[in-house]
Design a protein that fits this description.
Elements lengths: L1 H12 L2 H12 L2 H15 L12 H19 L5 H12 L7 H17 L58 H16 L4 H4 L8
């Protein structure tokens, strides 16, 4: 019903221009998710164990910056590093780019992604975020500072934030991160695994 309700509200409040602008801004993020699915998930992750560390990391970084600069020329504007990397990958994967130079660039980008896939410095890249195993009995990570009093627990030091008054201290997700969560929801719905709406089904033991 969401599509029908969206159209109804658009007409009701006369916000067609705003809706079109939002749709265009959302479509601008498509290269990120094409890169995530078709390059990182299908090329980089399967090759992780076979990908060796770069002999010259500095040279590799310079080559990736060159690829990003080419992507910015195609886009005609300055891009953030993740978008520039994604757009460069999408361009390299085009069927009409099946040449030796493109293959070499793809190999370089694959190697670079393999190096940085689990790098904490790139944790904010939605392109590198994939479902992880969850310990449902240990959802909240805690520290136990007193060995003789195991009931005393505190949160991890790296997650502590100074609270100033009663204002919201969490910066929340950005638009790209929100789209990433929606993208994951769509994936689950297509596979009939949307347990957030249907609940977790018990497996029948025979």
């Amino acid at each position: 019903m969401a599509g029908h309700v969206s159209q109804f509200l658009t007409r009701l409040f006369g916000i067609a221009n705003e809706v079109d602008a939002l749709a265009a801004a959302t479509a601008d993020q498509n290269p990120i998710f094409r890169f995530k699915v078709d390059f990182v998930r299908r090329r980089v992750i399967p090759a992780l164990k076979k990908t060796s560390a770069p002999a010259d990391p500095v040279a590799l970084e310079a080559q990736i910056r060159t690829l990003r600069a080419g992507a910015e020329e195609i886009a005609g504007r300055k891009l953030d590093p993740e978008m520039a990397t994604a757009l460069a990958a999408v361009e390299l994967m085009r069927p009409d780019r099946a040449s030796g130079d493109a293959a070499d660039s793809i190999n370089l980008l694959t190697q670079w992604c393999a190096v940085h896939l689990h790098d904490p410095a790139y944790r904010h890249w939605v392109s590198f975020r994939f479902p992880e195993s969850i310990d449902h009995f240990n959802l909240v990570h805690v520290q136990r500072p007193q060995a003789d009093l195991p009931e005393a627990v505190i949160g991890p030091d790296e997650r502590l934030r100074r609270r100033d008054g009663f204002g919201l201290t969490d910066s929340r997700m950005g638009e790209r991160e929100i789209l990433s969560e929606i993208h994951y929801c769509i994936l689950c719905h297509e596979r009939d695994k949307d347990t957030c709406s249907k609940g977790i089904r018990d497996r029948q033991v025979k």
